[in-house]
Design a protein that fits this description.
Catalytic activity: L-kynurenine + H2O = anthranilate + L-alanine + H(+); 3-hydroxy-L-kynurenine + H2O = 3-hydroxyanthranilate + L-alanine + H(+)
Helix content: 25-40%
Distance between the termini: 37 Å
Number of strands: 13
CATH class of the largest domain: Alpha Beta
CATH architecture of the largest domain: 3-Layer(aba) Sandwich
Subunit structure: Homodimer.
Strand content: 5-15%
Order of helices and strands: HEHHEHEHHEHEHEHEEHHEEHEEEH
Cofactor: pyridoxal 5'-phosphate
EC number: 3.7.1.3
CATH topology of the largest domain: Aspartate Aminotransferase, domain 2
Family: Belongs to the kynureninase family.
Strand order of the largest sheet: 2-8-7-6-5-3-4
Shape: globular
Length: about 425
């Protein structure tokens, strides 16, 4: 049997751990909620702060990373990570604001097609956005938003998704990876099935970008949104991203704004909106330069590491974690799908004392993630988690369970879980 030490010795990504700031002795298993700061991310932020200090207003066009075209340049480098053409991606906004932009642009309800199909397990913010957008169209969310049901409360069945692709559905919005269970949906199959029924398809990639390759253009996905602060390590509240397939680029943005203008005409101050070509048209306001800056450093790391290599190691890490859990902690119910092709970058465990267990783990130096009401999420991140980290996490967790150390804590979530 191969040991964790041997796996670490064979790991081609092991040196990237030195790129990240981490407390001495800490094991960080919460990168699917907020990734760690890298030295390169810090350096890029400081560099762009210097450009403000040194150039003032001329920072828009001067320096190593002129602000005026920074989003477009970064977007072309993000595009390979999601399997898109450079003109189909834009670093902008947040997941929620980008959902509003995509729906306002692509959702054109008719008496025959007025339903937005979502799932009952999705992250609340996506649901809030869909509901409010539907209301703005004068529709009733109780009628125009339909939720795919889960059979077990953790995952979705492909057959249940297919069953809901009815003739009254205009748009489908689903997560690529379900945040509660770590289930990875089959983007290509879902997209193909929806397109066969004349339905547009979008995905929220929050829990997959930076953890695995994507093939959005090839799969024919109509639109996608994501954040960069989880596996992409861009920092808290870092600027998000959107993808819109080139076949939709002729459409005017539903929410037009100054930075969606053709760059050559943006400063003409003309009240006639001349949209940019490609995904750049779907920007709204002025880019948040300091919020974008750390992503520049993160992009460099991913370009050096290779997203395929990241996915390969991620699967090995979660496989090791799972095998140890099954053998040593059967009282924790693993709710993440078993097959590699059906899971993202984290393992989700169900236990009635989940909040208590998470608090005990954190006090023992392991940073997990709790999701109400009973989920422990453990995300070993390929760029800064070692196989030895996984082994030590299991040892600490086993001691907590065997000695019932979790009983020293209340089974209530913290304000920020």
């Amino acid at each position: 049997m191969v040991t964790a030490k041997q796996l670490d010795e064979q790991d081609g990504l092991r040196d990237f751990k030195n790129e990240f700031y981490m407390e001495e002795g800490q094991i960080y298993m919460d990168g699917n909620s907020l990734g760690l700061m890298s030295k390169r991310a810090e350096g890029k932020l400081l560099s762009l702060m210097d450009s403000w200090k040194n150039f003032g207003i001329d920072g828009w066009t001067e320096g190593d990373n002129p602000w005026f075209t920074l989003a477009e340049e970064m977007s072309s480098r993000i595009a390979p990570f999601v399997g898109a053409q450079a003109n189909e991606v834009m670093v902008t906004g947040s997941i929620t604001s980008n959902i509003h932009q995509m729906l306002s642009t692509l959702f054109q309800p008719t008496p025959e097609r007025s339903v937005v199909l979502v799932d009952e397990l999705n992250f609340p913010s996506d649901i809030y956005a869909v509901e409010s957008h539907i209301r703005l169209r004068g529709l009733d969310p109780a009628m125009a938003m339909r939720k795919i049901k889960s059979r077990d409360g953790y995952t979705l069945e492909f057959e249940d998704i297919l069953e809901q692709l009815t003739e009254d559905v205009a748009v489908v919005l689903l997560p690529s990876v379900l945040y509660r269970s770590g289930q990875l949906l089959n983007i290509r199959e879902i997209t193909g099935a929806a397109h066969d029924k004349g339905i547009l398809v979008g995905f929220d990639l929050a829990h997959s970008i930076g953890a695995m390759p994507h093939h959005l253009h090839e799969d024919g996905v109509d639109f996608a949104v994501w954040c960069h602060y989880k596996y992409m390590n861009s920092g808290p509240g870092g600027t998000g991203g959107l993808y819109i397939h080139e076949r939709h680029h002729h459409l005017l943005p539903g929410n037009a704004g100054w930075f969606g203008s053709d760059k050559a005409k943006q400063f003409d101050m003309d009240h006639h909106f001349t949209k940019a070509e490609g995904a750049g048209a779907y920007q709204i306001g002025t880019p948040n330069i300091f919020s974008m800056a750390p992503l520049l450093g993160s992009i460099e790391i991913f370009e050096a590491a290779g997203i395929e290599n990241v996915r390969e190691k991620s699967l090995k890490l979660t496989s090791l974690l799972r095998s140890r859990l099954v053998n040593e902690l059967p009282e924790l119910t693993d709710v993440t799908p078993q097959q590699d092709e059906e899971r993202g970058g984290h393992i989700a465990l169900s236990h009635q004392e989940a909040a208590r267990i998470c608090k005990a783990l954190k006090d023992k130096g392991v940073v997990p993630d709790f999701r109400a009401p009973n989920i422990i999420r453990l995300a070993p991140v390929a760029l800064y988690t070692s196989f030895d980290d996984v082994e030590r996490t299991i040892e600490i967790l086993k001691a907590i369970m065997d000695e019932e150390l979790f009983k020293n804590y209340t089974n209530e979530r913290n304000v920020v879980a």
